[in-house]
TrEMBL record:
Highest classification ranks of the organism: Bacteria, Pseudomonadati, Pseudomonadota, Gammaproteobacteria, Vibrionales
GO molecular function: hydrolase activity
Domain Choloylglycine hydrolase/NAAA C-terminal: 26-218
Keywords assigned: Hydrolase, Signal
Record Gene3D superfamilies: Penicillin V Acylase, Chain A
InterPro entries the record matches: CBAH/NAAA_C (IPR029132), Ntn_hydrolases_N (IPR029055), Peptidase_C59 (IPR052193)
Keyword Signal: yes
Signal peptide (residue range): 1-20
Name the record gives this protein: Linear amide C-N hydrolase
Domain of life: Bacteria
This protein's record includes keyword Disulfide bond: no
């Protein structure tokens, strides 16, 4: 089916506007069917993020914004978190209840956080995944909290490609719990936009990438837009969606079979370090891929620059101790 003229114009504009930053992207997909509760996500960035996996026990004191109204609290739940880049931004996290929260790239042509209101609690943009997994057990709980606070802009400094520079956080978020309830949260022109539901009630929410804003991706779903082979954000998302929808069509409920099948999503959006994107004439690197099994509370991490596959779970650290334990680091980072 052909896309409408409106969608085509929007995508052309998005591609043109985002060419300078197209190598800062990710793709995610969620599959919940019977006893299977799994997600897959790639982390793409033009430069090494030195990802570090940590386990954090309950009771750690946290500050989520450096403002007068910034929220501080002790973590209610133990969690595993992946910290990216020298600032230690939590790009991916899962807590002991199976609630997953992640940051993906959404360009500044779309992302604009609201000004914080006096007296309303603040969470900085880069702290949202940590805030979610520290404090909530379900997607509904997390969304209720996010609707009641201000998520404010945060300057992130010295990212690869931005040495000696601080930029506003170009991000949006996806959260999903063990029941299959998921949500995409964006801040567009200062307005909070939340898309939520299960695969049955809101199938598009289970698949996420980058530019343009999420409402355009949902229109593409409605119009039956077919994926191309490019590594543009909407093509990556549509390829991931096609593979997961095939799992539903085949009603794959065996966890072992689903785990092997979900690898096809990563294989179809993975770019490694050496693929040239013809649209921008540049290399588009996938730094790592994370496979999350919420039912078994485990991670399988595949880094692009090593043959080693890393396995993580909640038995690897003391969940009840208010401390952070380093569980794994990139073996190539000295």
């Amino acid at each position: 089916m052909k896309a409408s003229k409106t969608i085509i114009a929007t995508l052309i504009a998005a591609s043109t506007l985002s060419m300078a930053s197209i190598a800062t992207a990710c793709t995610s997909a969620i599959y919940n069917n019977g006893d299977v509760n799994m997600t897959v996500r790639t982390m793409d960035w033009a430069g090494q993020d030195q990802a570090e996996v940590v386990g954090k026990g309950r009771g750690i004191e946290n500050q989520y914004a450096d403002t007068e109204d910034g929220i501080t609290s002790k973590s209610k739940y133990a969690s595993m978190q992946i910290k990216s880049f020298n600032p230690g931004i939590v790009a991916e996290a899962m807590n002991e209840k199976g609630l997953v929260a992640r940051i993906l790239y959404l360009g500044k042509d779309y992302t604009e956080f609201p000004e914080g209101k006096t007296g309303v609690p603040d969470v900085s943009a880069g702290e949202v995944p940590r805030f979610v997994v520290d404090n909530f057990a379900t997607t509904d709980e997390a969304l209720a909290a996010l609707r009641s606070i201000d998520v404010i802009d945060q300057k992130i400094c010295d990212l690869p490609g931005h040495t000696n520079e601080c930029i506003s956080a170009p991000v949006h978020y996806q959260i999903t719990d063990a029941s299959g309830k998921s949500a995409v949260i964006e801040y567009v022109k200062g307005e909070q936009k939340i898309y939520e539901g299960t695969h049955e009630t809101a199938p598009g929410v289970q698949f996420m990438s980058n530019d343009p804003e999420f409402s355009t991706h949902l229109i593409m779903d409605k119009e039956g837009t077919k994926a191309d082979a490019s590594i543009r954000s909407y093509d990556r998302r549509l390829r991931a969606k096609e593979i997961v929808e095939d799992l539903y069509a085949r009603d794959v409920k065996d966890p072992a079979k689903a785990a092997l099948s979900i690898k096809a999503v990563a294989n179809n959006v993975f770019s490694g370090y050496d693929r040239i994107d013809a649209h921008v004439n540049d290399v588009f690197p996938t730094l790592w891929t994370i496979y999350t099994d919420q039912a078994n509370q485990s991670w399988t991490l595949d880094r692009a620059d090593t043959w080693e596959i890393e396995q993580y779970n909640f038995t690897m650290f003391d969940n009840a101790q208010a401390a952070e334990t380093v569980l794994g680091q990139n073996p190539n980072v000295k």
